[in-house]
Amino acid sequence: MKPTALDLFCGGGGTTIGLMQAGFQVTGVDIIQPKNYPGHDFIKKDVRDIPIDFLLGFDYVTASPPCHRHSIATRSQRDFDREKYPCYIEQVREMLRDHPLYSIENVPLAPLRTSLILTGQPFGLKRLWRKRHFENSFIVPQPSLGNRPRNCISVTTSMCSNNHYYRRKKLGLQGRPPLWVCLSIMGYPRWTWKHYPKWTLLNYHEVGNSVPPPYARYIAEHAKAYL
Fold first, then answer.
1. Which residue among 29, 50, 133, 172 is least crowded, i.e. fewest CB within 10 A of its CB?
2. Can you list the domains of the chain with their CATH numbers?
């Protein structure tokens, strides 16, 4: 029987895929249901309304609270208003404090009790520089972060913005990369984008918000060892 994992704030399912690759039976929770959620089960619900007893029923719980308040892209906006973007990290940490195996993910400026930092280089993602911090309730070895690649592609939610596309065009640069390229450099398995442009697992916004599956798989494999 497979161990079970709960993916809170699952979005389009980047973390979910990594958990599945690590051998977990995955249930996703989010307030908006993605069109093509890849996990075994999905619950459309505000994560903050999930009962504690329900969380404890899973072997491993991972959470990726909204990062907009702490992301560099959001903070660089002229009309940036902190109160417009709530931070759920403290609340999520309180929810998970009695669970033996949990992981909380967010951007570098978020107020996590960081125990692990990941980039694409340790996983062979040579064009990806996507630094993410993790607060884990168990020990996960810290791999070498490597150096920022010269030809890296920034995979962000702004890729779905026309302003981003035309601004790059004016500079003589390629517009936003095709969606299959974004999924490929993030380490998504080929089945999630091989039918592009007819079908891909995630849209631009979902992939821009997602955790690369190799990151989630790496942590989940160490969580599984504790079971």
1. 172
2. 4-142+211-226 (3.40.50.150)
